[in-house]
């Protein structure tokens, strides 16, 4: 089984590839949290993000095509059953993608945690010409001295109060944090999600932060970054929901910020 997916396999990476043709984008899509036989790939997941993850079976094309979810779960099960073989396959595929990128004159970009939250530091370090980027709820990774220089990490906001405090602290230290926003002015379910408004600034714990449109591209390494001594940016992601019930649960859980 092939582990890496091309940009065309995911709505956001496909949109990004169409805008930024200088990049060859690949991603690793694993079944999120503990949805593959209870074997979690998201150490810092919360109850809300587990139920509402865009990589789950209840949203996107996975709602329609069961094979998508089956493939993601198979990869997780393989990784846990024979990690050495899994890693060898993944490294081989990245080597192939790097050669193809070199041949076509593009830069290889990899998102290895498309729906997971694993530590890929060692693997990424073996590909210094590649750019890697991910979101993470394991916020300590963002400022870790072991993080490879070619790895761009954006923190992820949850309904957990401790996570929120840590996110605000990182924002004040100049790091970027992704936050989901729900616009209550309409019924934004499915494809209508991208019609939601996002703010230009957002105040958290008394501090106002500038907001970037995180849906404009998935390539987080292209986001504006704070200059020394300045606050980081809130990366706004419009709330994605596969149903009205899922949207309501997202809002009531505190998982997202609300625009009245």
Would you give an account of this structure?
The chain is an alpha/beta fold. It contains seven helices and ten strands. The protein has helices at residues 11-19, 47-52, 66-81, 83-104, 121-125, 161-172, 244-253; strands spanning 4-6, 23-28, 107-111, 131-136, 151-156, 177-183, 201-204, 207-213, 234-238, 257-259. Strands 1, 2, 3, 4, 5, 6, 7, 8, 9 and 10 form a ten-stranded mixed beta sheet that branches. The radius of gyration is 18 Å and the shape is globular. It starts with a strand and ends with a strand. The model is unreliable at 61-65 (pLDDT under 50).
Summarize the topology.
Blueprint: E1 4-6, H1 11-19, E2 23-28, H2 47-52, H3 66-81, H4 83-104, E3 107-111, H5 121-125, E4 131-136, E5 151-156, H6 161-172, E6 177-183, E7 201-204, E8 207-213, E9 234-238, H7 244-253, E10 257-259
Parallel strand pairs: 2-3, 3-4, 4-5, 5-6, 6-9, 6-10, 8-9
Antiparallel strand pairs: 1-2, 7-8
Helix pairs in contact: 3-4
Features:
260 residues; alpha/beta; 10-stranded mixed beta sheet; 7 helices; 20% strand
């Amino acid at each position: 089984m092939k582990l890496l997916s091309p940009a065309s396999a995911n709505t956001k990476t496909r949109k990004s590839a169409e805008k930024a043709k200088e990049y060859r984008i690949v991603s690793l899509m694993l079944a999120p949290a503990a949805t593959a036989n209870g074997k979690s790939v998201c150490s810092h997941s919360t109850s809300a993000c587990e139920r509402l993850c865009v990589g789950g079976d209840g949203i996107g094309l996975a709602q329609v095509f069961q094979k998508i979810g089956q493939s993601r779960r198979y990869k997780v099960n393989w990784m846990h059953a024979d990690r050495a073989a899994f890693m060898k396959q993944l490294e081989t595929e990245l080597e192939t993608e790097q050669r193809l990128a070199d041949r076509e004159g593009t830069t290889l970009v990899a998102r290895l945690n498309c729906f997971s939250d694993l530590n890929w530091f060692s693997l990424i370090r073996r590909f210094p010409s590649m750019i890697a980027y991910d979101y993470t709820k394991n916020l300590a990774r963002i400022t870790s001295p072991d993080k490879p220089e070619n790895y761009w990490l954006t923190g992820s906001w949850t309904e957990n109060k401790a996570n929120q405090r840590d996110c605000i602290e990182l924002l004040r230290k100049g790091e970027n944090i992704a936050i989901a926003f729900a616009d209550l002015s309409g019924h934004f379910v499915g494809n209508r999600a991208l019609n939601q408004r996002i703010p230009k600034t957002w105040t958290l714990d008394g501090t106002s932060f500038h907001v970037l449109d995180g849906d404009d591209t998935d390539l987080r390494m292209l986001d504006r970054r704070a200059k020394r001594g300045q606050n980081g940016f809130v990366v706004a992601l419009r709330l994605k929901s596969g149903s009205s019930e899922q949207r309501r649960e997202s809002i009531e859980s505190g998982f997202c910020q609300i625009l009245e």
